Amino acid sequence: MNAKVETHKFQAEVQQVLKLVINSLYSNKEIFLRELVSNASDACDKLRFASLSDQSLLGDDTDLAIEVECDSDARTVTIRDNGIGMTHDEVIENIGTIASSGTRRFLEQMTGEAKKDASLIGQFGVGFYSAFIVADKVTLTTRKAGTDEAWRWSSDGTGEYSIESVDTDSRGTEIVLHLKEDEAELAESYRLRSIVGRYSDHIAFPVRMPAAKPPVAEGEDGDEDESKDDAPEWETVNQAAALWTRAKADISDEEYLDFYKHVSHDFNDAVSWAHNRVEGNQSYTSLLYLPSKAPFDMQWNRDDRKGLKLYVKRVFIMDAAEELLPGYLRFMRGVIDSDDLPLNVSREILQDNPLTRKIRAALIKRSIDLMAKLAKDDHDKYLEFYEQFGEVLKEGPAEDFSNRDKVAGLLRFRSTHQAEGKEADAVCHSLADYVSRMKSAQDKIYYLTADSYRAAINSPHLEIFRNKGIEVLLLTDRIDEWLVGHLPEFDGKPLQSVAQGDLDLGALEDEEEKLDREKQAEESKPLLERVEKSLSERVAKVRVGAGLTESPSRVIAENDQMALHMQRMLKQAGQDIPEQKPTLELNPKHPLVEKAASIEDEKLFADYCELFLDQALIADGATLDDPAAYIKRVNSLLLG
């Protein structure tokens, strides 16, 4: 057969990933076999599911399995499966390109430091490309189940690959690794057996290798029947039983961690896991994992749901059962195996099935309980986990009203209170922590949203709270405005922004302070009216600021307005929002405000008014429309 050979270039990103995988994961080279066996297992899973609706796909070859063999003389390792196989276009799509929106971000974070890069690669997933850690050439032959066309892909991993049509008698995929000269030891059967035993013992399909040949007895002719070499006897070298079906007492932590890497294709260990069997009116097994590292596009790519593999009676159904967990738990990994869902389950049936709704509710509870247990048992490890997935978890109160309070209890924030042994800007304060530290007369949970910790901690909004020793949560994630909009209270205590509305500290402010403020407002009325007239184009109103003790001014939004921080974020995102003028609050006791009150020249007075407003906007995180005019005005006032 004279097939035309096609030559293609790898995507630029693929070439970079290949280079980084080869160079950064060299010390973990054994993972190549784990990854390729795991891919073969997925191919068998997919064929078994497809055969539910089309039994002819299996043909006479119904024994799904994975074979691993080696040739020490040729220095090759071969991994083959009789799973679903690939078409020509699927080969190009799955190997020649990286269909991941996080790829560029992944590459940008590479540093050339092997240890750090290996961790980053683990977050991205190495998969098929790990073959080039040990091989200087890889040949893949594949035939899609139900088709007659087979294809051979070949590359040395340096920039190009070839693909051609070939003849093969069997469906599935065979990968031949031509090992590098210094990796010859991997072409030894005992070495491959040990790797399979360590990383792939939990694979639900048999992993078979040629049986060891008995030694030739003295005096026998070892060449008497060479034909036997052409048909080796195969033996299963793994347990070939789904790990989640085994009793928890029989599974070691190492086996759980290895299975996590198989089911998630993650290079890193899981943080924690929960293995449960439910029996009764509804029977199913769940094995849930908390990952340690987030994919690069986790926070903003809500549609890429890879979390849970769904099985029905050990038959694989779907690779991303997104209906079983809400979006805010999309970082969860694991397996669900049900005895009750129909085998011909489809996405539409899954969405409407009452059994599925019960499983979903139980999985949400177990996921939340797993995180709560980690937070209770190992505070520091939970904070490391939260740093990776906290922003995703913050979607929970808006998305899952029934579990809003439980999810809120898992959230962590920065605060004006410094936790013992933690950096001042550490994200380590829970809402429960805050409530436990509230003053006896305090009835609200105070918070401030800002673009950064430094902007928040130095904000004029905090001045009176700092003076009174009242803790304020500092919310600096972009999603925080969305969060507080859907989390009005916690433990019966309403959440109150310190940058919105007329500040009322209630019982935290004594009668003398209230009378003094009212007196200031009355005495400053002529000044406030004069400033409000001068700034009528830019502000809605001007009043005395109850929260100001050090700064001359601040800007706030009223309670019926959108928060100023939210307005800025929406504008930055290109959203059109109705114009809303802020309220300007002044500190009548500040020397600059006192000086302005004594100025008779209207132009000079107007400059001071503009200065108070612009400084307040800058302190609040806003970008001035005309910064040059602001600088000119400041310089003019400095020169007197």
Structural features, described:
The structure is a single chain. With 640 residues, this protein is an alpha+beta fold. It has four domains: 5-213 and 233-239, Histidine kinase-like ATPase, C-terminal domain (Heat Shock Protein 90, 2-Layer Sandwich), CATH 3.30.565; 244-383, Ribosomal Protein S5, domain 2 (2-Layer Sandwich), CATH 3.30.230; 416-421 and 429-498, Rossmann fold (3-Layer(aba) Sandwich); 508-639, Up-down Bundle (Four Helix Bundle (Hemerythrin (Met), subunit A)). 36% of the residues lie in helices and 18% in strands. The chain has a nine-stranded mixed β-sheet with strand order 1-6-5-4-7-3-2-8-9. β5 (150-155) and β6 (160-166) form a beta hairpin. α1 (12-24) crosses α5 and α9 (354-377) packs across α10 (379-393). The longest helix is centred in the middle third of the chain and has 24 residues, at 354-377. The relative contact order is 0.07.
